[in-house]
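Inputs:
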Amino acid sequence: MLSKAQIKYIQALQHKKYRQKSRQFTAEGDKIVQELLRDGRVLEVYATADWVEEQQVLLAQLPSLRLEVVEPPLLKQLSALTTPNRAMALLDIPPAAAPGPLNGTIALALETIQDPGNMGTIIRIADWFGIPQIICSPDCVDAYNPKTIQATMGSIARVQIIESDIIPFLQQANVASYAATLHGRDITEFDAIKEGILLIGNESRGLSDAVLEHCTYRITIPRLGGAESLNAAVAAGIICGRMLLG
Amino acid sequence: MLSKAQIKYIQALQHKKYRQKSRQFTAEGDKIVQELLRDGRVLEVYATADWVEEQQVLLAQLPSLRLEVVEPPLLKQLSALTTPNRAMALLDIPPAAAPGPLNGTIALALETIQDPGNMGTIIRIADWFGIPQIICSPDCVDAYNPKTIQATMGSIARVQIIESDIIPFLQQANVASYAATLHGRDITEFDAIKEGILLIGNESRGLSDAVLEHCTYRITIPRLGGAESLNAAVAAGIICGRMLLG
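Outputs:
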């Protein structure tokens, strides 16, 4: 049974301040928890009896996992989401790291992404395209926000999230960088790239001039219709779809 | 001043049942309301005094617009969103129409898209790529849902939304159709298309077998990493970015 202190602790992890202090986070949702369990990094699971029953094959492979069967009303209390799920997992936030060398890989760099859903969706896109690291400017929304984690659909376990100022990262990486803008070179003019940095900026303002000055190319998704802009995560997806696949 | 009956009416439009009965909907948000006003289809605006002051040049061009200056607490009461905006517009839902002939255009067909944010984001993608019509299966989330409208960022005014069963539409259109699946032909194998139907299915189940049987091609975004799937709106964006731009 969960103690009052444990319940309070799990609820506190909805807030960035407590996540940063304890270096732990929660993930909610049937599919996400299953994926994270397969990945072997889950410390504890809180789930309804029916979910535990359904997942007994998976759970039997994880004898050291701490599992708490909880009643739906308690799970609802623990949940950070308006539509609570049947399972929730507790995990460690990986230790903070500096950006690694690209060594023939692609990195995404995000400047001031504010929407947790967009952040999570971009992490999922990176995972789909095999992008190992995402560099987030310190003013991006926290990647371990419960809404972000939900939008990653489990991809948070496979993509390294690194907080770093963008300009020093670009200077140190010393590879070609491609900045998503509204008035740059048509993405269809480029061949597929094997190594480089793709940059996506804030939802309303895009990338800052300071960052743009340090980028090799400004690139643009050709607009054939009337919309003023695209959603930041969709733009990231379209750019990956062109720049990585050719 | 808004009467109690008007307030009740605007609030009722948060619900699909009332939108369908009255054939009207509301749109919220500074930028969206501005875009819709420029498009000339707004019937009434409810906005705070500071927003009206800021937009006086735009509003002066619309002498027949009915404008109500409201206090922020009342706007909050009218709002369907958790973070209410400074302006809200009332518009007519366009009359229901049958799918038009493609005549050298691309159409999107959506089967059972359930998330209002995805629906709105897909409408915005269609607008960006100049896709004039979106065919929605009758069990899609309502395109005039307040969360959908917000995610369209004004694009709702430029893309025709048509409710129709997908299979009769495919049969009648009689052009090549491209179904997004997880195990189809690599999208990079195709040249840019000028006419045709791109199909996107439900967020968890994808397209139904019944619809797939009526499609010319099954297409797939190549997966280079570990994610099981992509967000439906992101997939729609990547597919448009390849199939329309070549």
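Remarks. The interface with chain A takes residues 35, 117, 121, 124-131, 151, 153-155, 158, 187-188, 221-231, 233-235, 237-238, 240-242, 244-246 of chain B (CB under 8 Å). Residues 178 and 217 of chain B are 5 Å apart (CA to CA).
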